[in-house]
Design goal:
By secondary structure, this protein is α+β, with helices and mostly antiparallel strands. The protein has one domain. The protein is 27% helix and 34% strand. It is built from 3 helices and 7 strands, in the order βαββαββββα. The chain has a 4-stranded antiparallel β-sheet. A 3-stranded mixed β-sheet has the order 2-6-7. It is globular and about 50 Å long. The termini are far apart.
């Protein structure tokens, strides 16, 4: 049986964040994003870094998303973290990206 992987994403609409930043409601390091996840079947010769980079490229390019972080559970060393983002609003509360990453044991920048 093929192994399943869980991909965790913290992202949000670029237009909404851009508007909030343009009207000086958000600093450049603050974005709107929500956590979501998807499950996929891992193929033979699976490359976690390539998978993360591909999903990120699609979300940022085609879906016009700000991707704050993206990783695969069990492959945290290949996580993508947007170094420019510090604070996240999910629409109801604020939290620090660094603290969210620590919850998943993703290494954070100093």
């Amino acid at each position: 049986m093929a192994e399943k992987i869980t991909i965790v994403v913290l992202s949000g609409d670029k237009k909404i964040t851009g508007f909030m930043q343009a009207v000086d409601m958000f600093e450049q390091s603050k974005v709107i994003a929500k956590e979501w996840a998807m499950t996929a079947t891992k193929k033979q010769n699976f490359d976690a870094k390539k998978c993360v980079d591909g999903i990120r490229s699609f979300l940022e390019g085609e879906m016009k998303q700000n991707v704050a972080a993206l990783f695969i559970i069990g492959y945290e060393q290949d996580a993508y973290v947007n170094e420019k983002i510090q604070s996240i609003s999910d629409g109801s509360k604020w939290f620090l990206l660094k603290e969210w990453l620590n919850g998943y044991e993703i290494p954070t920048r100093t």
